[in-house]
Known about the structure:
Bound molecules: pyridoxal-5'-phosphate
Strand order of the largest sheet: 2-8-7-6-5
Oligomer: single chain
Amino acid sequence: MTTTISRRAGGVISYSYDDFPVPAGRLDLRGDNSPPLPATTVLLEHPRLRPPELAGYGTVAGEPALRAAMAQLFAMTADSVVITAGASEALFLALTCVADHGQRVHLPRPAFPGYEQLAHITGLRPIPYAVPGALPLPGPGEPLLVCTPHNPTGVLIAPQPRRSAGWTIWDLSHMPPIGDSPADFGRGLGSHDITVFSLSKALRLPGARVGCLVSRDRDLTAAVIATKTHLSMSTSRLAQDLAARVLRHPGALEDVANRTRAYAGHRARMLDAVATSTCLQAWPALDGTHVFVRPTDGRDGWRILADAGVVGLPGVVFNGTSDAVRLCIAQPPDVVDRAVRIVGAL
Ligand SMILES: Cc1ncc(COP(=O)(O)O)c(C=O)c1O
């Protein structure tokens, strides 16, 4: 009997940071290198759950306290929220529940690489649209996925009136959970909209693997919960308890606000440096922790920056043009200072 790997699994493309090593003496701007939020340190050092809670699965939809906290963030009801193992599982569930094998799904390019790979795994046909640019008008029943703040460009895309008869999946993983933005966003969403969110980014908890999917459509949330029963089942109760306590912690949200302000400064300085350089241009970043840069003359931007001492992630990782490079500005101020000086002098 012949054993083969399925085409879907065999065709999965995955990169790790190790594919783009940082030689000694160069600056690492590949990803978020910031420490956990200071106010959460005590919570992270003392995860707590009573033994009976760990001796049982939790509910598939998520722990009530965390569903309520997520619901409050997006001005929705707790039964609209399904807690997931990061935004990655939420995206997988969303794509699985909104389209069938062979159907078209409209995805941004460049973009978080998971979109195209998850579409491939779930048997959907990705139809790319450019960011920045006008959102496409999908055909009947074709889902559209939108990421804002957008990884890797930092571009913002406002909620839009319904554009087609299909679902729209909004990936808000890089939106800081502070101020009015998440609730305003939630209030603007209709029953055809699905929100995906993550605690990995602004709350700096990628290791907790907590995210959520939010939808006003009861049939959709029921389908998501049924599907999730055969995936992660319940998300780690330890992580959910931690996440609920972090979200309730006023100091943690103050830390997020401080970091968001600091990163706005880092972003502005990096964009200025790119504008000062004689050979680089940047996408118009307004939020998030990334700046996406390319040379004006079609040369390999990743190589130019890496040779000059600043290592980011190349555009191909994001299905973008191979001359582009993503720089993450969530770094200590001295690293940003040094990177800005190098970029500005190019
Ligand atoms: C835009 C976007 N969506 C989703 C994810 C997945 O996040 P998580 O760590 O919560 O699975 C990422 C991770 O980098 C991301 O950048």
